[in-house]
Design goal:
Strand content: 15-25%
Bound molecules: adenosine-5'-triphosphate
GO molecular function: ATP binding; ATP hydrolysis activity
Protein name: ATP-binding component of ABC transporter
Oligomer: single chain
Distance between the termini: 45 Å
Largest sheet: 6 strands, mixed
Shape: globular
Pfam families: ABC_tran (PF00005)
Number of domains: 3
Radius of gyration: 24 Å
Family: Belongs to the ABC transporter superfamily.
Structural class: alpha/beta
CATH superfamily of the largest domain: P-loop containing nucleotide triphosphate hydrolases
Organism: Sinorhizobium fredii (strain NBRC 101917 / NGR234)
CATH class of the largest domain: Alpha Beta
Length: 515
């Protein structure tokens, strides 16, 4: 249990609970937050982390318990009330309005006025200062948010939080959409804010981020705070065990030594794929049972390559062969169906993967319609059995099958997306950085599942921004740079060092900037 400080902390939460219907999202939670410290909140998907911070940020009202700021009881009826008290939040889902400019978004809650009108000049100055404080001075305040890539939008989000002049800054997986360069910048900014005396709450599933940033850690499990300790005083495995409440062993399943049958065509082969100047002369093949990784810095063509294979891009040059025969994949609908039987597991569950107002059952059974219906009639027993299997395999935590997908925690929503695709039993599985926001325990299950699918004959292409994942999961890794494959690493050659060196394309000495 957490040690309680003798002096009163900047912020304290005592015995806070929150239930959603029958689900206990938070159960008698206790938390002390100190000024000048970075406090990591850890826990598996659905442990209650987002609920905790939504309560702190005035988004959700607790059912019971109290909160104290500077030793005084506080309760926030709205996000504006929490913000006025000095609590700002950067959520994992972006809150910016795409059609407005960066400056409008930053000042939206409190625009500066002059003679009753919005003072554009003052607004721009506020935005410039906030962007500079967030280490994003390169973003122009007049740019429309919709014209910025996701990682830059996230920086605007951080600037927006800083513009309210918070004493407590909460970041809920705020770095999961950032490029490595931006993450390094954000970390420097956060450390600077710490030395200015801000209290920071940091939620992330990435253990190396916690190790680098945090001073204090609190672990939540099933809505309760189960441990509180100084960062660095526990090993990673110990921390994970606290999170998942069971023993934790090696994350990655052993890599298989594969022997490809002579004369057998690879399941998937691309020859000289090109698309505008963004994909250039890409050739590779994936055999039955193989997991081939795509590595490199973000934005080097990896996502486009997956879209190209899935039939989304028009006007591609080169050819794709499946089982040795030229494949004419006219679009995603054709890609999904036999004989191709492809699946593309997306990273962005909100726009590509899930129908949030629909129930978990509807989301899942819709995907597997071909497998659960015969002659146009849905076999309910079969549907139930398939869905059950997936819920168990991926440890999806939901109050039931008939709740809307939008009521699941972020990580659990992503698991439903993965389940949805895997239920179709695809033969070619394309994964687009699918484990963002997924807790370490479930990642382990996912890696095992991928291995099993490969062993059952699937061919897998796995793009990941997480080096550990490429090292642990893949038989080979193709590193992309500026739309080309610049290196192919195999077996034990796949190391962090090799991946980083080839990602920067240092050996080839090629000039260029990463997008
Ligand atoms: N609006 C809601 N309606 C119903 N249940 C909810 C709602 N919001 C959260 N829950 C449930 O509360 C529990 C805690 O969810 P919460 O989002 O706090 O988890 P989390 O620790 O942030 O997870 P993740 O790491 O996946 O983001 C989950 O079981 C979730 O399904």
């Amino acid at each position: 249990m957490g040690e309680i400080q003798a002096t009163s902390p900047l912020f304290r939460m005592e015995g806070v609970s929150k239930r959603y219907g029958g689900v206990r999202a938070l159960e008698s939670a206790h938390l002390d937050v100190e000024a000048g410290r970075i406090h990591a909140i850890l826990g598996e998907n659905g442990a209650g982390k987002s609920t905790l911070i939504k309560i702190m940020a005035g988004v959700v009202a607790p059912d019971e318990g109290r909160m104290l700021l500077d030793g005084q009881d506080v309760s926030f009826r709205s996000p504006a009330a929490a913000s006025a008290a000095g609590i700002a939040c950067v959520f994992q889902e972006l809150s910016l309005i795409p059609d407005l400019s960066v400056a409008d978004n930053i000042a939206i809650a409190n625009p500066p006025r002059r003679f009753g009108l919005i003072d554009r000049r003052a607004q721009r100055a506020i935005a410039e200062e906030a962007l500079a404080r967030a280490g994003a001075e390169d973003i122009h305040p007049r740019t429309a948010v919709k014209d910025l890539p996701l990682s830059r939008r996230q920086m605007v989000e951080i600037a927006k939080a800083l513009a309210s002049g918070p004493r407590i800054l909460i970041l809920d997986e705020a770095t999961s959409a950032l490029t490595a360069g931006d993450v390094a910048k954000v970390f420097a900014v956060l450390k600077g804010l710490r030395s200015e005396g801000l209290a920071l709450l940091y939620i992330s599933h990435r253990m190396h981020e916690i190790a680098e940033l945090a001073d204090t850690c609190t672990v939540f499990r099933n809505g309760r705070n189960v441990a509180n300790f100084s960062a660095g005083s526990r090993t990673n495995s110990e921390v994970v065990e606290m999170m998942i409440g069971r023993e934790y062993s090696n994350v990655f399943p052993p890599r298989q030594k594969r022997t490809i049958e002579e004369g057998k065509a690879p399941v998937l082969e691309c020859r000289n794929l090109g698309w505008s100047d963004r994909l250039r002369d890409i050739s590779f093949s994936v055999g039955e049972g193989e997991v081939v990784g795509l590595g490199g810095l973000e934005g080097q063509g990896q996502r486009l390559l997956l879209l190209a294979l899935f039939g989304v891009l028009r006007g591609m040059s080169g050819s794709v062969l499946i089982d040795g025969a030229p494949a004419a994949i006219s679009g995603p609908a054709a890609a999904r169906k036999p004989p191709h039987s492809m699946a593309l597991i997306p990273e962005d569950r909100k726009t590509e993967g899930l129908m949030l107002p629909m129930t978990v059952r509807e989301n899942l059974s819709f995907a597997a319609l071909d497998r659960v219906s015969r002659g146009g009639v849905i076999d309910r027993a079969k549907e139930e059995q398939l869905i059950d299997e997936m819920l168990r395999l991926l440890e999806i935590k939901t109050a039931g099958l008939d709740v809307p997908a939008g009521a699941l925690s972020g990580g659990n929503q992503q698991k439903v997306v993965i389940a949805k695709w895997l239920m179709r039993e695809p033969r070619i599985i394309l994964l687009n950085d699918p484990t963002r926001g997924i807790d370490v325990g479930t990642k382990q299950e996912l890696y095992r599942l991928l291995r099993q699918l490969a062993e059952a004959g699937a061919a897998i292409v796995f793009y990941s921004t997480d080096y550990d994942e490429l090292i642990g999961c893949c038989d080979r890794v193709l590193v992309l740079y500026d739309g080309r494959v610049v290196r192919e690493l195999e077996g034990d050659q796949i190391s962090e060092r090799a991946l980083i060196a080839s990602a920067l394309n240092v050996e080839a000495g090629q000039e260029g900037t990463a997008a």
